[in-house]
Amino acid sequence: MVTFSMKRAGCAEHRRTARGRGSDFVAFFRAWMGDPLRVASVMPSGEGLARLITSEVTPATGPVLELGPGTGVFTRALLARGVAERDLTLIEFGAEFAGMLTRRFPEARIVQADAAKLKQCRLYDGAPAGAVISGLPVLSMPARKVMAILTGAFGYLKPGGAFYQFTYGPRCPISRRILDRLGLKAVKIGSTRRNLPPASVYRITRRPALKSAVAA
């Protein structure tokens, strides 16, 4: 009887998960149909990409800022890494996704805003964030907007903090020109084929300050 009950409970959980994934796909597809440049994909990111982009984040990282969380795939991965829900700030432009995130993550701070206007949001006092997880389609954005996003995000990152960005392309989605102008560097931390399409993740950090030459 106990075994039967456990199997029935497991089946019910599987059905709930399947329904949740189905509703996520529908929400993403509708958003993509409405604005393909903003959403840039017809489906949410896969769990393999979610694990990769959050792999260097721990509970000790500190507050985490997530940009373009969509249906919350990366958000769930952050919680699985041990990050407290109350330490998450989610920046979502789409009203349909912002409402969904508010229901799914009631302890997180959900801000419906354009990520290019982060600087004006005044999310924190100072720069306490340890990581920024970006689900934004930066490849489809103008350079000026990408620079505004990075400038705003790094304004909230503490020293040593990192900005994580995924891409479906063969190289870093942030151009070398933008990285040089903002004093940043990018390192590829891995790729995953367990995503449709396959994706890579880059860690973007501040370059070390140049030491002054010592006079002879």
TrEMBL record:
Superkingdom in the source lineage: Bacteria
GO molecular-function term, one example from the UniProt record: methyltransferase activity
InterPro entries, per database record: Methyltransf_25 (IPR041698), SAM-dependent_MTases_sf (IPR029063)
A Pfam entry, by short name: Methyltransf_25
GO biological process: methylation
Keyword field: Methyltransferase, Transferase
Annotated Methyltransferase domain residues: 64-161
Protein name as catalogued: SAM-dependent methyltransferase
Record organism: Tistrella mobilis
